[in-house]
Amino acid sequence: MKKSVLTAALAVASVSAMLLSGCSTTAAGASRACIILPDADSGTRWEPGDRPALEAALTDAGFEADIQNAQSDTSKYATIGDQMLTKGCGVMILVDYQGAGAAVAAKAKEQGIPVIAYDRPIDGADYYVSFDNTRVGEMQGQTVLDGLAAAGIDPTKASVVFSSGDPADGNAKMFYDGAVSVLTAAGVVPAFEMAGTWDGPTAGTSFEQAYTKLDGKVDAVLAPNDNNAANIIAILDKNGKTVPISGQDASVAGLQNVLLGKQTATVYKPFKIEAAAASELAIQLLKGETPTVDKTLDDGTPFVALDPVLVGADNVKDVVAAGDAKAEDICTAAVADACAAHGVN
To answer: What residue ranges of the chain have pLDDT lower than 70?
Structure first.
């Protein structure tokens, strides 16, 4: 995505929550946004990406941003939530982890504090800000179909392994359902369905079991994100095989695999756009204003839905141009020739 496109998308995110009326909050810490991130594992987006983007947007608007990380621990998530609510919050922005966000959201609502579910849906949240998750899945499904077409394989006869994200993550089902809707419409029947996970090594082990069970007859893989795809690709590499495979996140490893032709495409979700949309919404709420949002989830939760972008080898350079990846990180010795061929510099 080019910078001009990012600018336009930010403008869309900004107008997606227009002001209707105002009401003041009297809760302690009314000028403070309380934000819980789910983890800080190596390679994830939350600490290097979302934290500084959210903090800058909120503090630039004159509000305090209390941002803490649950470190992949549901108990820690609950403790952080309790501590924040004791100190006082004007709004909470929660990235769910293993369902822990729901209890914190419920406590916040008991205190009259609005809750924004960020990136992942949370039962009981007042608003949800994320990319259009069904559309992400549709892009992943189309990635598999495009790869099969390029290989000259009839999708109705293809041996396709289906995998998905952790079922505890509310987004995972939306990704999967979107992908399956596209694949089913094309006549694809799963040859093997892996258990859902976001853990890369677990996905790799599960795929190796699938590969063995199918006697190596694998024509394509529906992978839910780049991390899972990378571990699946490692098994394919070990067996000297390259097949169409989807992904998500436009991670450095994912972009490298796309450039090398080992991964067909990745779905790019610019965190800056998401952080800007959530911050815009939070700032309105901190000012005592009541936003309105055009879309809703099935349960009626107002949903600020942002547009994802499909990235193949030819537009990896656009992710770099947008500032969401660095050429020096992508273009290691093994990828240098591919970077040069596709204008990544």
So the answer is: 1-28, 42-44
Give 22's contacts (C-beta < 8 A, 6+ positions apart).
287, 288, 289, 290
Alpha carbon distance 236, 161 (integer Å): 12
Q: Which token pair is 71?
A: 């470190």
For each of the domains in the chain, give its residue range(s) and CATH number, in order of start.
Answer: 3-125+271-307 (3.40.50.2300), 133-268+312-341 (3.40.50.2300)
For residue 256, which of 330, 324, 313, 314 has the smallest C-alpha distance?
Answer: 330
Residue type, 16: S
What's the longest Cα–Cα distance across the chain?
Answer: 64
Torsion sign across C-alpha atoms 332, 201, 237, 174: negative
pLDDT tens for residues 322-332? 999 999 999 99
